[in-house]
Every structure is written in structure tokens, then in C-alpha cells.
Amino acid sequence: MRKRIVITLFLISLVLTGCNSNNGSDLNEIEGKDQLNTNQGNEELTLQTISLEEKLVPPKFIITNFNMNYSKEKSQLFFDMNYEIDTEIYEILTTGNQEMHFILEYHENVVETLRETHSDAIIAEKPSDYNTKYQVTFTQLIDLARSDVELIEEHISGFNLLIADSEKDIISQFVGLYDYN
Questions:
Q1: Calpha distance 11→4 (Å, rounded)
Q2: Is the dihedral of CA 25, 30, 35, 40 positive or negative?
Q3: What is the DSSP letter of 126?
Q4: Class of the domain covering 61-180
Q5: Are 161 and 167 in contact (CB under 8 A)?
Q6: Which keywords annotate this record (predicted)?
Q7: Cβ neighbours around 62 below 10 Å, total
Q8: For 34-74, what is each residue's pLDDT tens digit?
Q9: Looking at beta carbons, which pairs linking 65-73 to residues 24 or more positions away fall under 8 Å?
Q10: CA angle, 64 as apex, 59 and 68 as ends, to 5°?
Q11: Which DSSP helix (H) or strand (E) runs through 92?
Q12: N or C: which terminus of the chain has fewer CB atoms within 10 Å of its end residue's CB?
């Protein structure tokens, strides 16, 4: 009789242990689904693009230096532009699925000399390490005479900067770029 009671108690505890194990795995399964749904929601938030439109204006975006150099030996024309961004733009560029493309629009008096109305689009460096100061260099392979270089220098104040977003839509324009130095 005593043996029967021990066996019965053993079987009951075995059944109860089995029930608890299933409930725990069901709970883990439910938690896993919730975690999956949460992760999918986070992915959607991460993939959402935050617009830079109407944000790339002083003091949030400042051009700190703009100059031109020409290398006769390499037949290369360089336009160097230093710029600074504020923390809001930094955050959008690092976490907002966004990027900036710079296009230099030439003054009408040098279009014939440069054989183009604007430069190629250059993707801005992705911000990192909380650095807010950057430089971009526009380079063009072109053979120029001294008089051509002087003409470009004379009209550099009439160059414009166009800024496009990750979808290549123009979202900002700096007219008379040299004046923003």
C-alpha cells in the first residue's frame, strides 16, 4: 500500500512537472513572438528616412571655408569646402537613414571654360565620433590656361552649392557660396 502511494505521488509530480515545462515553453514562445514583433517595429523605425529639408541653413549647417586650387602638372581643378553641422543634423545623418550629396553650380561666366554647368554630385562623409567639422573636395580633370584660372577666381563668388538628400532631391541651396565663408 505504501509502495502504491509513493508511485502515485511520483507519477503526479512527473505529470505536474511536464505541465509546467509546456507552460514555460509556451510563455517563451509568446515572448519570442513579441520580441520578433518589437524587432520588426524597430527595423521599420530604423528604415524610416528623416528629412533634412529646411534644416540645412545657418547656424545648423555652416560653410566655414571655400577655396580653389589648380594643379597645372596634373591638369586638376580643386574646390575645397569646409563645413560644420550641428548635433541635430549629425543625429539625422547617423541614425536617420539619410545622406547629403553636394553639387557645385558654376557661375554662368565660367560654364564655357569648365564645359559644364555644375560639378558631379559628391556624397558627404558619414559623420562619426561626434565630429561636426568636415571637408569635401570637388575635383575636375581639365586643362586650363592661366587666364582661365583667373576667370574662375574672378567669378568664384557667384558659385552656388546645391545639397541633395539620399533620394537625390535638392533640399537646400546656398547662393553665392563664397559669401558664406
A1: 10
A2: positive
A3: P
A4: mainly beta
A5: no
A6: Signal
A7: 16
A8: 454 545 555 544 457 788 888 898 899 999 999 999 999 99
A9: 65/181, 66/156, 66/159, 66/177, 66/178, 66/180, 66/181, 68/152, 68/153, 68/156, 70/144, 70/149, 70/152, 72/144
A10: 145
A11: helix 87-95
A12: N
Q: Which amino acid is at 25?
A: S
pLDDT digits (tens, 9 = 90+) for 77-136: 999 999 999 999 999 999 888 999 999 999 999 999 999 999 999 999 999 999 999 999
- 533634412: which residue's cell? 52
Domain regions of the chain by residue span: 1-48, 61-180
Q: Find cell 528616412 and name the residue.
A: 49
User: What is the spatial distance between Cα 60 and Cα 84, in angstroms, rounded to a whole number?
Assistant: 8
Three cell numbers, residue 114: 569648365
Report, in angstroms and rounded to the nearest whole number, the Rg of the chain calculated over CA atoms: 31
- Cell numbers placing 135: 571637408
